[in-house]
Amino acid sequence: MLTNKCALVTGATSGIGLAIAEALARSGASLMINGLGDHAANHALVRGIANRHGVKVLLNEADLRDPLQIAAMITEARASLGSLDILVNNAGIQYVAPIEDFPIDKWNDILALNLSAAFHTIRLAVPGMKERGWGRIVNIGSAHALIASPFKSAYVAAKHGIAGLTKTVALELAQHGVTANTVCPGYVLTPLVEKQIPDTMQARNLSREAVVRDVLLAAQPTKRFVTVEEVADTVVFLCSDAARSITGTSISVDGGWTAQ
Question: For residue 28, which of 99, 154, 188, 211 sits 20 to 30 Å off, Cα-Cα?
Answer without folding.
Answer: 188
